[in-house]
Amino acid sequence: MIAGGRTLGYNFNDHFQLNGVISRSSRSDDVSTKTENDLSYNTAVAVLFEINRPFG
């Protein structure tokens, strides 16, 4: 159960990091889009920390 929770968290985090890099490099001129991506990424990380806290 512990290993499953951590594995899910790491895979999820990598997924958001990769998507963030791709969207930022392809839309670096759109400030509003970058801000939305930052907010989405930060929200996802915050949720993952909350999910993983009981397992850590």
Structure overview:
The chain is mainly alpha-helical. It has one domain. It has helices at residues 2-26, 31-52. The longest helix is centred in the N-terminal third of the chain and has 25 residues, at 2-26.
Describe the SSE topology.
Elements: H1 2-26, H2 31-52
Give a quick set of tags describing it.
56 residues, 2 helices, mainly alpha
What shape does the CA trace take? Answer: rod-shaped
- Radius of gyration based on Cα positions: 13 Å
- In N-to-C order, the SSE pattern is HH
Please tally the β strands and state the result.
Answer: 0
Note poorly predicted spans: 1-5
Q: How far apart, in Å, are the first and last alpha carbons?
A: 11 Å
**Helix amount, in percent?**
over 70%
Strand residue content: under 5%
Number of domains: 1
> What's the average pLDDT?
60
Main beta sheet strand tally, sense and closure: none
Structural class: mainly alpha
Question: What is the tally of helical segments?
Answer: 2
